[in-house]
Amino acid sequence: MRAYRYAGFTLTSSVALPELPPAPRRTGDVRIVMSGRRSCASRGAWEHRWRFPSGRVRLNLASAGGRRLLQFPGLCEFEIERDTISCHPAADVPPITVRHLLLDQVLPALLGSDRRLVLHASAVVLDGSAAAFLGAAGTGKSTIAAALALDGASTLTDDALVIRFAGRRALADPTYPGIRLWPSSRRLLGVWARARHRPVAHYTTKQRWSGSPVRFSGTPARVRHVFLLTPGKAAGVRLLSGRMAIMAMLRHMMMLDVHDGDAGRRGLELAGRAASGIAVCRLVLPRGAAGLAAACAQVRDYVGRSTGVPAG
């Protein structure tokens, strides 16, 4: 079994996970096993379904006898029992796609259900603390994180922010090096010379950029600012009230079962705890290169003059 680090945890895996940094110890918090292939066709008895805007099913969830089953139709099924994740890819689905679903979807949701506050956010280390960018898919989280990284910040995580608490401090644990960008974002940014890039999965044009030019912070950082991304014409930052901050985090929380009452109550408690020590702001991110540059300037200015602790 190989051992890797992910968000402060050690994973042991029967297959290589080249995206992750290796771990020195061989006893894992989470065990990953690649099992036999399955058809991954719809079975009908699902407790919850997540759909794309088109209506097509993106993810199915079922649970029974302490086990949970996550199915990405036509791609892969993941069985979760205690701390073991068994992966059952569909025929002809390449390993890179299975790893993307595991690392960017299943693991964050698992940690968000049982152990941590996990937000659908990208984050960079800026002026010694973590600044995170929260929002739905396509709002520009990775793009603004990449723009700040190109200007000297270090990436901490892309698309899944894993938070633990030490007293009143909220700490972000790094996930793994690299940042995922659409072709339009790459054209907007210009990206990094000499950086490695490879497809994220076989069904998308997104690419994962990594390597020494893409600065990565491998140590935990205190989260002082979270920016909720909103489209608009003029870049600007506005601090949200405590209630609105909690609502924003709940809306973009990652967990396995949204209908699990215990997990929901734990998520509400963690979101409230985070909102008491983090400045959660609305950031207007205009389209285009000029709008991106203006939003980055607003972030740098706000982080530079704010303690990150909400008033009141």
List the SSEs and their pairings:
Blueprint: E1 2-6, E2 9-13, E3 30-34, E4 48-51, E5 57-64, E6 67-72, E7 76-81, E8 84-89, H1 95-114, E9 117-119, E10 121-126, E11 129-134, H2 141-150, E12 154-157, E13 161-166, E14 169-173, E15 179-181, H3 183-189, E16 196-199, E17 207-210, E18 221-230, E19 236-239, H4 242-251, H5 261-275, E20 279-284, H6 288-305
Parallel strand pairs: 2-3, 3-8, 11-18, 18-20
Antiparallel strand pairs: 1-2, 4-5, 5-6, 6-7, 7-8, 9-13, 10-11, 10-12, 13-14, 14-18, 15-17, 16-17, 19-20
Helix pairs in contact: 2-6, 4-5
Strand content: 25-35%
| Biggest β-sheet strands, sense, barrel | 9 strands, mixed
Instruction: Tell me roughly what share of residues is in helical segments.
Output: 25-40%
In round numbers, the mean pLDDT is 90
